[in-house]
Design goal:
By secondary structure, this protein is an alpha+beta fold. It is about 30% helix and about 15% strand. Strands 2-3-1-4 form a four-stranded antiparallel beta sheet, sandwiched between helices. Helix 3 crosses helix 4. The chain is globular and about 50 Å long.
Length: about 210
């Protein structure tokens, strides 16, 4: 058996997508099995991939991807600074309640990166609950991107995608690479660094599992 398969999962690099960021039939691949939005059917079937590695770097048809975004029921979500702050507050509330350890977090206009230590909750549960708390906070602050699309019962369309990417991390080196990637994401996009900005993010110990002695 390959050594990489034997290694236990130590952490996760979780990428949460805003609505419209990564479509089910994205030409690079997606986590979806079906295309639920009839407006997107003409752009092809779901591009399901069986990997826990990012496929963002894969060459693809950009024109097709942007054309599909224009066919969405609602415009793709682009969080402004106040909305990103509300998302972070929601993340922080979940972290406080759950005890999840977050070593890095970058909230971009259309997605978020979090590097999270392995927890007794599975990453699917963590991803769902992070999105839920962020959405709740956006509603409380009246900053939800789809407030103007609220229905008669007060509900609004989801501002996050149904699924997410979760990269499984099995080495300390990979943890550190993922943390650097998340931390550098904003500055590479021309935005302000978010290092030290979010109170729920804690420093990664120099040696995994030895935080008290780091």
């Amino acid at each position: 058996m390959d050594d990489a398969i034997k290694r236990p999962v130590l952490a996760y690099h979780l990428i949460l997508s805003a609505y419209g960021f990564w479509l089910p039939n994205d030409p690079r691949g997606s986590w979806s099995r079906l295309v639920h939005n009839p407006n997107l059917v003409e752009f092809g079937d779901a591009t399901k991939v069986n990997t826990h590695e990012s496929v963002a770097h894969v060459a693809h048809d950009r024109k097709k991807r942007f054309a599909a975004k224009k066919a969405l029921t609602y415009p793709p979500v682009i969080f402004n600074g106040l909305q990103a702050r509300a998302v972070a507050r929601g993340f922080g509330k979940y972290v406080e309640k759950s005890g999840v350890t977050v070593w890095a977090c970058a909230i971009m206009p259309d997605h978020a990166h979090l590097v999270i230590a392995r927890h007794h909750y599975d990453i699917e549960t963590i991803g769902n609950l992070l999105k839920g708390e962020a959405t709740k906070q956006l509603r409380e602050e009246k900053r939800h991107p789809f407030e103007s699309h609220a229905k008669k019962d007060g509900t609004v369309p989801p501002c996050f995608a149904r699924k997410w990417w979760s990269v499984f991390i099995s080495t300390e080196e990979h943890i550190e690479v993922s943390i650097r990637y998340a931390e550098q994401n904003p500055t590479k996009a021309g935005l302000k660094s978010q290092v030290g900005m979010w109170p729920f993010v804690v420093p990664y110990p120099r040696r995994y599992g030895e935080a008290e002695n780091a």
